[in-house]
């Protein structure tokens, strides 16, 4: 059975363009189109699509408000179309908080060199996101304990995979925390980081697949939500306890120097790399500085970025954790870690932050 898609956009031209691109994939079927958020809510209930593509700025009712209402009434995986601007970044992050599970630039040339590549990427993302089962949006207020807040969860409907035997838990000292993620990562990172107290004793490196115009706004949002300090990494930044450095979008973040006096090196994203930033590249560089003293965590995401870097870290004595399948938006990157036998622990997203605190 084909994956059923509802397209929501106030531009008739864009609706037709997206419809043509999706209809070219035999796995996908466009079952409806809406020109505003109010109509999207109605059609989501009537048509019960497997996935919705949603514009942000629309008349009558905007995409963020529509997303929030759809997630409350008829939860459906939603991909937002966003402009790659500062305002677009903030709006997209609001949409993810409202329950959307992924986003794509509205200008396809920003993510692909030609129409065929854009079509392939769009269809791939829509098909992958549609495989997920979402739950109604539930915003949970923070508990009185220091640095604990919560955000919504998105859960897949796929059957659980029998994981290989886990590595033995480590007991040695951890001096660096590194977290890599992709699709579903903005919400997942919020969930993990808000559980860390202000006096968290380790420096943190964050690698999130995200456009360069988005990472400053995302770092700022995390900094406002969390007790720890979060900033977009700059070339030459020194590692500091209780400070998380977010890799800039479109660039690579590597670690240089020696343990105790290490700093990040930010370089332009080389064309040879699929991901900019790349979790693999950051993890590999960490292995040269903190080979036996790193806790590397891989969260929700499409693909296998992070597996090769985690393999090197594991070989040198570091500890690797993976998010479990049930709490992932896309069980790709964590699955690659688990299936390669690299995971020391596999945890539900809601348990990762508190377990990090216990571990360090």
Please describe what this structure looks like.
By secondary structure, the chain is of the alpha/beta class. It folds into two domains: 132 residues, Response regulator (Rossmann fold, 3-Layer(aba) Sandwich), CATH 3.40.50.2300; 206 residues, Rossmann fold, CATH 3.40.50. 34% of the residues lie in helices and 21% in strands. The protein is built from eleven helices and 16 strands. The chain has a seven-stranded parallel β-sheet, sandwiched between helices. It has a five-stranded parallel β-sheet with strand order 2-1-3-4-5, with helices on both faces. A hairpin with a 6-residue loop joins strand 12 and strand 13. The protein is elongated and about 55 Å long.
Write a brief caption for the model.
This protein is an alpha/beta fold and about 350 residues long. The protein is about 35% helix and about 20% strand. The protein folds into two domains: about 130 residues, Response regulator (Rossmann fold, 3-Layer(aba) Sandwich); about 210 residues, Rossmann fold, CATH 3.40.50.180.
N/C terminus separation = 48 Å
Strand order within the widest beta sheet: 10-11-9-8-14-15-16
Quaternary structure state of the chains depicted: single chain
User: What's the number of structural domains?
Assistant: 2
Gross morphology is elongated
Rg over CA atoms? 20 Å
Count the DSSP helices: 11
CATH homologous superfamily identity of the largest domain: Methylesterase CheB, C-terminal domain
**Average pLDDT level:** 88
Q: What summary fits the major beta sheet?
A: 7 strands, parallel
| Unreliable runs | 137-169
CATH 2nd-level architecture of the largest domain: 3-Layer(aba) Sandwich
Number of strands: 16
Could you say which structural class the secondary elements and strand pairing correspond to? alpha/beta
Helix content: 25-40%
Return the CATH class of the largest domain. Alpha Beta
SSE pattern: EHEHEHEHEHEEEHEHEEEEHEHEHEH
| Topology-level CATH name of the largest domain | Rossmann fold
Strand content: 15-25%
